[in-house]
Amino acid sequence: MSHRRLAVVLLAAVALAGPACAKRDPAVKTLQVYDLLAAFPRAVVAVPGPDYVARGDFTVAREALPSLYLHPTSTVQFPPVRVSSQSVLTFRIGVRDEAWSQPGDGVDFTVFVQGTGPRVKAFSRYIDPKHVAEDRHWIDARVPLRAFAGQDVRITFATGPGPAGDTTNDWAVWGEPMIILAAK
Q1: Where are the alpha helices (DSSP H) in the chain?
Q2: CB atoms within 10 A of CB 184
Q3: Residue 147 — φ and ψ, nearest 5°?
Q4: CA distance 53 to 76
Q5: DSSP secondary structure code for residue 38 in this structure
Q6: 3-class state of residue 20 by DSSP
Q7: Which end of the chain, N or C, is surrounded by fewer C-beta atoms within 10 Å?
């Protein structure tokens, strides 16, 4: 089950059970989530052309998820959001199925976080599902944000080409990107 679906199921269960359930069972938590796809219209986008970025349901390994398509070399900087010591950035990365049989050398996915200090590279992963069968699925990622507790942070997603600098058919997608702000 995806992170987004899990959060929706948990919130629905708490709503159906009512506040009495939450008072009786300390294991029931309410998650506060910052949905980066919902924030995307307010993001700063830097792309070589208009067809390099799109929000929608994209498929990796025959599993469609709400995602951000971001062809290299592109960046998306999301609006600032205040995080706590418990906050975690979660997302999935992949290359769309249709690209696997096409020329190219894979994609470098990078996440930068900027609070009150300098911008920090918080995540980087190169995948090449065209040549590496183990990369032909959604790859889950979690980035703890405790180092930025109490700060308004800007999250930036960046995609780059593979080692040969080839951006051909680099149909990179970021699935279900969100920040789990806190659990109560």
Answers
A1: 3-17, 19-24, 36-39
A2: 10
A3: -65, -15
A4: 9
A5: H
A6: helix
A7: N
The Cα 117–Cα 152 span in angstroms is 11
What phi-psi label fits residue 83: left (phi over 0), alpha (psi between -120 and 50 degrees) or beta? beta
**Separation of alpha carbons 72 and 158, rounded Å:** 8
| Two structure tokens written together for 78 | 């999301």
pLDDT in tens, 15-60: 445 554 446 788 888 889 999 999 999 999 999 999 999 999 999 9
- Kindly list the structural domains of the chain, giving each domain's residue range(s) and its CATH number in brackets, ordered by start: 29-183 (2.60.120.200)
Q: What percent of the chain has pLDDT over 70?
A: 86
pTM: predicted TM-score of the whole model, two decimal places:
0.85
Is residue 1 predicted with pLDDT exceeding 70? no
123 forms beta bridges with 111
Phi first, then psi: what are they for 153, rounded to 5°?
-115, 150
CA distances from 11 to 59, 167, 176 (A): 26, 40, 17
